[in-house]
Amino acid sequence: MDVKVFSLGSAAAPAQVNPHAGTASALPATHPQVAHGKIGVLLVNLGTPEATDYWSMRRYLKQFLSDRRVIEVPKIVWWPLLNLVILSTRPQKSGRAYDEVWNTEIDESPLKTITRSQAEKLAAALSSSANVEVDWAMRYGLPPIAERLEALQAKGCERILILPLYPQYAAATTATVNDSAFDALKKMRWQPALRTAPQYCDDPVYIEALCKSLLEHLDTLDFEPELILTSYHGLPKEYLLKGDPYHCQCYKTTRLMREYLGWSEDKLQVTFQSRFGAAEWLQPYTDETVKALAHKGVKRLAVMTPGFSADCLETLEEIGGENAEYFLEAGGEQFSAVPCLNDTDHGMRVIENIVRRELMGWLPLPGHQDADIVTLQNSATEPA
């Protein structure tokens, strides 16, 4: 396996020049103070309702399901279906599901708790660089992307890196985060420079983190799974046919995991969960696969969710709850849902690796000039 090593402190790294240095004495005393010279990092995840009651769920679902990146059905068909049918019944059902996983101690969803922690831990990891500010936002719900971009700019961030926390690219996830960020810039008179981090489905640090996290979880079990499913969030098959690379990238992540672990396709399989509506979605479906495996005599099963950077409704309730029940009711005996990378050491190593890589050229981070980023030489060009 060929590797390249890139150092943030290489001789080729550009020197940092403060364009405002030496000018303070030339400014009149009445000149307003303007924060400047900082670099911002904004972590963005999918989103969450603010509470589990009907109206909170309705607001969240309306924003999410009104996104034209998420639902590509013609508006003349979708608007009455969404507003007259779905938003009349689904908030109650979704609210009950969120009640099962809600972080009652601080009254918020696990996704918000974990994403905040990821941002705090990243800030601590980059703390030796006084000119880096880290923040977090949600694509749907609070805090919104535009608000946090404005907050970073107010702190003096003239350059901002957006990191959508989706390992595999989809127009309905990564692209809509970027859309929202650039929509916010449209309204700014003085825009910061903006970078968007690409997908990282084949990043070796991510693959290693998934594998090590999986092995550590398996060591905690009192049984050995006969096989493991890697369950990714589904998409309508139509999106694949239109050119969305998500399906291919999910399979690539699992293939690279097999190579790292030395496992066969039978040991580590791909499925897709969370389908919605009557249209055909990416297959094989997780729920149907779980039931079929139990009917075939599989007694011990584990399911992990590599496409989620943090545990949320889809991992905790849908996999750890619903699919566990499907398996046991169909004849299975032992089931385990593998936690996401979350804000663990493995998870934070992935996030920090991506941020350091994507900030190259903007700065070497003081105190980390010798930090190396290792990437597979053929990762970027290898066909999925």
What coarse outline follows from CA principal-axis ratios? Answer: globular
Structural class: alpha/beta
Kindly state the number of beta strands.
10
From the N-terminal CA to the C-terminal CA, the straight-line distance is 17 Å
Order of helices and strands: EEHHHEHEHEHEHHEHEHEHE
Return Rg in Å: 22 Å
Determine the fraction of residues in helical runs and give it as a percent range.
Answer: 40-55%
Largest sheet geometry: 4 strands, parallel
User: What amount of the residues lies in strands?
Assistant: 15-25%
Low-confidence stretches: 1-24, 365-382
Number of helical stretches of at least 4 residues: 11
What's the rounded overall pLDDT mean?
89
Spatial order of strands in the largest sheet: 3-2-4-5
Write a brief caption for the model:
This protein has 384 residues and is α/β, with parallel strands linked by helices. It has eleven helices and ten strands.
Question: Could you characterize the architecture of this molecule?
Answer:
With 384 residues, this protein is an alpha/beta fold. The protein has a domain at 50-101. It has helices spanning 54-65, 75-101, 110-125, 145-154, 171-186, 204-220, 237-241, 246-261, 286-295, 313-329, 345-358; strands at 3-7, 38-48, 132-141, 157-164, 193-196, 227-233, 268-273, 300-304, 334-337, 372-376. The longest helix is centred in the first third of the chain and has 27 residues, at 75-101.
Helices and strands in order:
Blueprint: E1 3-7, E2 38-48, H1 54-65, H2 75-101, H3 110-125, E3 132-141, H4 145-154, E4 157-164, H5 171-186, E5 193-196, H6 204-220, E6 227-233, H7 237-241, H8 246-261, E7 268-273, H9 286-295, E8 300-304, H10 313-329, E9 334-337, H11 345-358, E10 372-376
Parallel strand pairs: 2-3, 2-4, 4-5, 6-7, 6-8, 8-9
Antiparallel strand pairs: 1-10
Helix pairs in contact: 1-2, 3-11, 6-8, 6-11, 9-10
